Amino acid sequence: MRGLGPHTRQDYIRHVRSFAAFLGRSPDTAVAEDVRRFQLHQHEIGVRPPTINGAVSALRFLFLVTLKRRDLSRALVITRYQRKLPDVLSIDEAARLLEAAPGIKYKAALGVAYGAGLRVSEVAHLKVDDIDSKRMLIRVEQGKGRKDRNAMLSPQLLELLRVWWREGKRRGVMLPHGWLFPGRSCTDPISSRQLHRAVQEAAEVAGIRKRVSPHTLRHSFATHLLEQDVDIRVIQVLLGHSKLDTTALYTKVSTRTIHAVAGPLDRLMALMEGKTPPG
C-alpha cells in the first residue's frame, strides 16, 4: 500500500525475522531493553553499519506502523559511518573488461552498465522495447525509488546492442517485446548474480586487480563524464539520483578534478627558483 519496492519489502521482512530469531519470541512482546540488546549484538558480531541502519528502518516500520509502539522506535539508534570512496576503472581498464566479457550477451549487458550508467537491476530488467533508437534513449522503468527515467544511448552502445540482438535472434532466445538480456529461460530476465559473476570473470581475464562489480561500471561512467567536463547536474539526471550530494561523491574520485589543483609545494618550489608559480 505504501509503494515500497520489492527489494525494500524483502529487506524489511528479513530484518524483522532476524530480530524475532534473536528474541526467540514474537516481536510484539519486545521491550526497549530487547531493542538495545539486539543492536549491541549486531555490533558485537561485526554487522556492517549499512546493514545495521537497514535493520533500523525495518524495525521502525514494524514498531510505528504495524505495532503502533512509538516507545520501541525511539530506542533504535542509527550508526554513523564514513562512506568509502567507490572503486573506479580507468578508460583503458573499462575497455579491457568489456573485451574480456564471457560472450556477446554479457559484453552488451556490461556495455549498458558502463555506457549508460545503469544499476545492475536496471540492466537485468531491460526489455527490447526499452531501446529507443530513433530518440537515442534507453527507457528505464521502475528504477530505484520506483521512478521511471531516460538514460543515454550512444551510437557505439546501440551498435553493440544490435550485434547482440542479431545473435539472440539467431539463437532463438530473443522474444518479441521480451527481455533484452534473457536468463536461462527466455521468459525470465538475466539475474543480478549472473552479471556479478560475469564481471568478476572478465576482471580476472583482463588482469584487473581492483574489486570490480557491475556497480563499478556505473561509478566509472559517472566519473569519466565528470572528467569530460559534463555538468554534474546532467550526470545527476542520467544516474537517476534524487539528491545532488549523492552525485557530488564522484568529484572526490575524479583524477582530473584532483590534477587541476596546483599543490602548495609546487608553488613554493617555483617561488624559490624565481619562476612563475603554477595555477
Mind telling me the C-alpha Rg? 23 Å
Give the uncertain stretches in residue-range form.
Answer: none
Work out the helix count: 14
Cα-to-Cα separation, first versus last residue: 57 Å
Give the overall shape, derived from the CA principal axes.
Answer: globular
Tell me the helix content.
55-70%
Percentage of residues in DSSP E strands? under 5%
Which architecture name of the largest domain does CATH use?
Orthogonal Bundle
> Which CATH C-level class of the largest domain is it?
Mainly Alpha
Any chance you could write out the topology, listing elements then pairs?
Blueprint: H1 6-23, H2 32-44, H3 49-66, H4 70-74, H5 91-99, H6 104-116, H7 120-124, E1 131-132, E2 137-140, E3 149-152, H8 155-171, H9 192-206, H10 214-227, H11 232-239, H12 244-248, H13 255-259, H14 264-272
Helix pairs in contact: 1-3, 5-9, 6-8, 6-10
List keywords for this structure.
279 residues; mainly alpha; hpI Integrase, Chain A; 2 domains; three-stranded antiparallel sheet; 4% strand; globular; Site-specific integrase; CB
Textual characterization of the structure:
The protein is mainly α and 279 residues long. It has 2 domains: 69 residues, no CATH class; 166 residues, Orthogonal Bundle (hpI Integrase, Chain A). It is 55% helix and 4% strand. Strands 1-2-3 form a 3-stranded antiparallel beta sheet. It is globular and about 60 Å long.
In short:
The chain is built from 14 helices and 3 strands. It has 279 residues and is mainly alpha-helical.
